[in-house]
């Protein structure tokens, strides 16, 4: 099973990593950004010489973006960094990540500059979304909302960092402008919005990027889990060669009515697929011939 984080659970994990495990915040950000850059370089190979537009906000998601920019530039990409806001307003770990970026940072301070992002996006080979992270509660507003709309109109291939900007990490709802990504590099584990529709439509393909926190700590205190095939497979062990239909039980399905024979047939088929050795579908006598024809592997029983 894979952990699925709420925003609060992700904040708690970051806090434990720093206070209890002694992992500095900048190191977590570096691991996240480096991992995302590696993923981008692989998915858009060869990355050397390609134009990459990195959109950053003033918070930690923007800090991840600065790390991605630095690593992709080191791999030979032509990187352009746009910051929604003033460089002097970037604080904390994000400011440290910004200080390590040696290239130019273009500030977006007006509506005209925000609208022009669409043209820049159309010229890029790949766009990296580091505008807003998992801490967003209300809809994106102001210049950030305008940038998101411009990016979506451009139809540029977007890689979102952690979560497509504009989504609430805990919700299926799309409450305002939200980035429509081709790929989402999410950090440490899945977020609920990446699995719940319609918000999940914005995520595209999702890849989980480890950020250097031990697995046991990542899994601690999680309320929601994503089942994987391996979790289900162990409940369906290999069957012996001499097994027969009598070895795996007899299941009775009571279903169907006039005009709804398909439901009875589908239920019988599902019962067989679940592993039952014998399946009998009890259905109204008037519908029995139809159900029998639709599900030849099942037995049928007429009901008055």
Walk me through the topology.
Blueprint: E1 2-5, H1 7-19, H2 25-43, E2 51-56, H3 60-74, E3 78-84, H4 92-99, E4 105-108, H5 111-123, E5 126-130, H6 142-154, E6 158-161, E7 183-187, E8 190-191, E9 205-209, H7 215-218, E10 224-226, H8 229-233, E11 250-254, H9 261-273, E12 278-284, H10 288-294, E13 299-303
Parallel strand pairs: 1-8, 2-3, 2-5, 3-4, 5-6, 6-7, 7-9, 11-12, 12-13
Antiparallel strand pairs: 1-10
Largest sheet: 7 strands, parallel
CATH class of the largest domain: Alpha Beta
Structural category is alpha/beta
List unreliable stretches of 5+ residues.
Answer: none
Order of helices and strands: EHHEHEHEHEHEEEEHEHEHEHE
Percent of residues in beta strands: 15-25%
Number of domains: 2
Categorize the overall geometry. Answer: elongated
Count of extended strands: 13
The name CATH uses for the topology of the largest domain is Rossmann fold
Q: Rg to the nearest angstrom? A: 26 Å
Strand order of the largest sheet: 4-3-2-5-6-7-9
- Mean pLDDT across the residues is 97
Q: Which percent bin holds the helix content?
A: 25-40%
Count every helix, treating DSSP H or I runs of 4 or more residues as helices: 10
CATH superfamily of the largest domain: YjeF N-terminal domain
Distance between the termini: 46 Å
Instruction: Supply the CATH architecture of the largest domain.
Output: 3-Layer(aba) Sandwich
């Amino acid at each position: 099973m894979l952990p699925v984080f709420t925003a609060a659970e992700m904040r708690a994990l970051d806090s434990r990593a720093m206070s209890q495990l002694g992992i500095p915040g900048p190191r977590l950000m570096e691991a996240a950004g480096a991992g995302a850059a590696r993923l981008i370089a692989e998915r858009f190979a060869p990355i050397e010489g390609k134009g990459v537009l990195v959109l950053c906000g003033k918070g930690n998601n923007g800090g991840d973006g600065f790390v991605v920019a630095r690593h992709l530039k080191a791999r030979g990409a032509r990187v352009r960094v746009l910051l929604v806001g003033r460089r002097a307003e970037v604080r904390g770990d994000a400011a440290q990540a910004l200080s390590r970026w040696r290239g130019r940072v273009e500030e977006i301070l007006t509506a005209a500059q925000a609208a022009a992002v669409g043209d820049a996006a159309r010229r890029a080979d790949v766009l990296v979304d580091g505008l807003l992270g998992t801490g967003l509660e209300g809809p994106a507003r102001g210049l950030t909302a305008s940038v998101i709309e411009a990016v979506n109109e451009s139809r540029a291939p977007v890689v979102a960092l952690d979560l497509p900007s504009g989504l609430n990490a805990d919700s299926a709802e799309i409450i305002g402008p939200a980035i429509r990504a081709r790929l989402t590099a999410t950090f440490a584990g899945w977020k609920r919005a990446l699995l719940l529709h319609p918000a999940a439509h914005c995520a595209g393909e999702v890849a989980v990027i480890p950020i250097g926190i031990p697995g046991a700590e990542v899994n601690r205190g999680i309320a929601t889990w994503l089942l994987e095939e391996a979790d289900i497979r162990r409940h369906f062990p290999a069957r012996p060669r001499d097994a027969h239909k009598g070895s795996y039980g007899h299941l009775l399905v009571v279903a169907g009515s006039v005009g709804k024979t398909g439901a009875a047939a589908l239920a019988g088929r599902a019962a067989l697929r679940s592993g039952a050795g014998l399946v009998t579908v009890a259905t109204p006598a008037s519908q029995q011939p139809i159900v029998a024809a639709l599900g030849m592997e099942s037995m049928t029983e007429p009901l008055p």
